[in-house]
Amino acid sequence: METIFQSIEILSKEKGIDPQIVLDAVKDAMLIAARKHYRTNEDYVAEMDAKTGAIQLYSVKKAAEEVTDAVHEMTLAEARRINPEAEVGTEIRIQKSTEALGRISAQTAKQVIFQKVREAERETVFNEYSGRTGELVNCTIKRVEGPDYILDLGKTEAKLPKKEQSRLESYSVSDRVRCVIKLVDKSSKGPGVLVSRAAPELVMRLFEQEVPEIYDGTVSIKGCAREAGERTKIAVQSRDRDVDSVGACVGMKGMRVQSIIRELRGEKIDIIEFSDDAVVFATHALSPAKVSRISIVNPVEKHMEVIVDDSQLSLAIGKKGQNVRLAAKLLGWKIDIKSEEEKRQEVESQMAALVAPGAPVSVLIDYGLAENLVERLLESGVGTIEKLGGMTPEQLEEIQGVGPGMVQTILDAVNGYYSQFEEQAAEGAAGEAGAAPVAEAAPAASEPVTQAAPEGVVSEDGAAAPAVEAAVEAALESPPAGAEEPEPAETPEKGEQFGTIEDADSPTHNQSEGAGPEEGRHQ
Length: 523
Hints:
The chain has about 525 residues and is α/β, with parallel strands linked by helices. It has helices at about 1-15, 20-40, 75-80, 105-130, 200-210, 210-215, 245-250, 255-265, 280-285, 315, 320-330, 340-355, 370-380, 385-390, 395, 405-435, 440, 465-475, 495-500, 515-520, and strands at about 45-50, 55-65, 75, 90-95, 135-145, 150, 155-160, 175-185, 195, 220-225, 230-240, 270-275, 290-300, 305-310, 335-340. It has 20 helices and 15 strands.
C-alpha cells in the first residue's frame, strides 16, 4: 500500500501541487464510486490509513429515538450494538466493503482524480502567472495545433494563437522564442497562459533588455503603438538632459535597434522623442512626413487637424493609412490630415457659405427697399436676392410697377446687402496681414512678388494672398515717416519700389541720413 502514497507524492511533484489535494481527490473519487455502486443516498466517508495506505469506506447514520429517515437515521438500540456508548444524535459509522467496487467504479474514480488534479494544477498556474502579465518569457515550441502554437514554459504550457503572431514569423517544433504573457485564464479548458508575439509590450521589453539607459531609468518609455509585422512607433523621454533618448535607443551605428529588428524579423521601428506638448509630439509622431502646421480642433475630445504639403500627404498618411493610424494611437488623439490644397478649398467653401444661397428678397427691407416693392418683385417671380442681382436695369423696368427711380433703389439695396460680406472678408484679410511685419512681407528687388507673403498666407500656386498684396501696395504708396517725397521724374519702377521697402527702418534706406533712392535700390 505504500505504492499509493508514493504515486501521490510523485504526481504532486510533477504537477507542482500540494499532495493533500491529490489525497483529497482520491477520497472524493472513492465516495463517488461508492454512491454509483450502491445506488443509495446514504452519507459516505472515506479515510486512508496513514500506516498501511488502505482506504476504508463508511456509511454514516445518526442515532435517534424514533426513526423518520431510514437512510440517514437508525434506532438507538441498533446504534449501541455498534457503539455501546452511543447516545441520541451520535454519528455511527458502518464499514462498507471496497472489494465490491468493480472496474466501472474504478474508471469513475480515475476520472475524478484526474479532474481534481487538473483543477489544482490550473489554480497553481494561475497563482504563479497572474501577476506576471506583460513579462518577457523564453518558450519552446512544443507542438502545433492548426494555426496555433503550444509552447512549453517549463512548469506549464502556454498558447500562442494566430491573432497574437506576427505575419513575418513561422516556427517549427523545438524552436525557442521570446514572448510576453498576454493573459492568464483559470477557467479555460486548455493551457491557462496566453502569450503574444504581436503585443506592443514585446517591443518595450526588448528595448528594456537592449538599452541600459532604459533599464536604469535614465530613459523612460512613454508609449508604444504597433502593427505586428509592419511598423512600430515607440515614444521615449530622457530624464537627464545630457542624455539623448532617441540616440540611446538607436545605439552606435544603430546596433541596439538593429538587434531588436532582427528579433522581430525585420519589422520597421520608429523611435520618437516624447513631448508634453501635443502639437510638438504630433509633429514627431508623424515622421518621416514633414508637417506644415497643426491646429487643435477640440482639446476636450482630443481632436487635432494637421496640414501638410501636397508632396508630403501620402507620406504622412502612410501605406493604407498606417502612419497616421499609429501616430493617433500613440498620441491618443484623433488626427485629421489635409493637404494645403484641400485646406485652401475648404476655406474657400466656408467663405462662399457666408453668402447664404437663395436669400429671400424680403431681407432687402432692412437695406431700404419698400415692402410694396418687395411684393411686386415676388409677384413677378423674383424670389431671391441672387436672381434679383443678376437682372439688368432693362429687365427690372419690364416688371410692372417698377420705374427708373425704383431701379436705382433696388440696385442700392442689393449692393448694401453684398457689401457686408466684402467688409467681413476685408477684416479677416487685414488681421492676417497684420500678423507678420511688413519687412518680412516685402521681397528683395531681384525676387518675384509671389514670395512676399509670410508663412501661412501663401496660396497653393505660390501667389501671395490678395490681403498681403493690398498691404504691400498700401505701404508703398505711403513713404516712411520723415522721408522726403521723391520727384516724379525719379520715381522708380514697381519692382524697384519693393526693393526700397524691404528694410525701410535700416540706416541704408533712411533718406534723413543721406541715402537717396538710387542707393536704396541697390542694397
